[in-house]
Amino acid sequence: MAGTDAATEGATIVMRVDIVTIFPEMVRGFAREGIVARACERGVVDIAVHDLRDFTTDRHRVVDDSPFGGGPGMVLKPEPFFRALAHIRETRGEPSAVIVPSPQGRRFTHDLAVGWSRAEHIVLLCGRYEGIDERVVEALATDEISIGDYVLSGGELAAMVVADAVVRQVPGVVGDARSVSEDSFARPWLDYPHYTRPAEWEGRRVPDVLLSGHHAQVARWRLRTALERTLDRRPDLLDGPGFAAEAGADVERTLREIRAERQGSRSGRQERKQES
Ligand code: SAM
């Protein structure tokens, strides 16, 4: 039943991820490509995709039924989910978290991804139609997670979002650990802009400092642009408690400089306006 099982014999499995869905091929595709696939091949992560229909007992493998109380749509029945989780517990061990993607859940964040990346085993139960029978959520879920304020047709995309964000935080999954530690949200500010060859394309030049080979200046430019774009796009990150805890003297000083320069150019503009 496993969609993409760890292939490297003898390797230590760091993390198991089980995803229960009525569209297993949709999810297996995700586990066959890119960083997640490589992590599975190397045995760092073991992803198993389970077809909810395999846990039905009737001839037609029915997983849904109409809602009590009437109304539109269908609801995913409880029994197949209970059986699927019992099977996962039996064959793959007790999970640290059973996550139900739902637009009504707690918003998924970087911190949750990091937290779950330290777990040995997580399970994701994907809803469809009007959702999953509430008794599944009450009895089995440790977390209900939303990936944003919009409604998807099913939990598969959300489960893949969660699994991808979690897996890339597992140590050793992304080749150079700096890629992960310097990403947006890894620190309470956004990543700096990235450029590659050619140095000029259609009249747009890469900032000179990045071509200078001067590592200290490159680092200063990166910190400054990261903080500038955080101020422009996500100023809330700089006001949160995480920022005070994480920002060192360099960050504090650079942010003060940017704010002072911006304040200066605003006052200059106001003065010129009053004069004219
Ligand atoms: N009737 C539900 C409601 O309004 O809250 C929406 C059900 S939705 C059409 C079907 C399934 O998609 C949900 O059970 C959930 O698994 C998933 N889903 C939809 N939007 C989501 C979101 N923003 N975050 C996570 N999962 C979502």
What does this protein look like?
This protein has 276 residues and is of the alpha/beta class. The protein has two domains: 15-167, SPOUT methyltransferase, trefoil knot domain (Alpha/beta knot); 200-275, Trp Operon Repressor, Chain A (Orthogonal Bundle), CATH 1.10.1270.20. It has helices at residues 24-31, 34-41, 78-92, 110-117, 134-140, 155-167, 177-181, 215-233, 235-239, 241-246, 249-275; strands at residues 15-21, 45-51, 64-65, 75-76, 97-107, 121-125, 143-146, 200-201, 204-205. The strands form three sheets. It has a five-stranded parallel sheet, with helices on both faces. Strands 3-4 form a two-stranded antiparallel sheet. It has a two-stranded antiparallel ribbon with strand order 8-9. A hairpin with a 2-residue loop joins strand 8 and strand 9. S-adenosylmethionine (SAM) is lined by residues 101-104, 126-128, 130-132, 146-148, 150-155, 158.
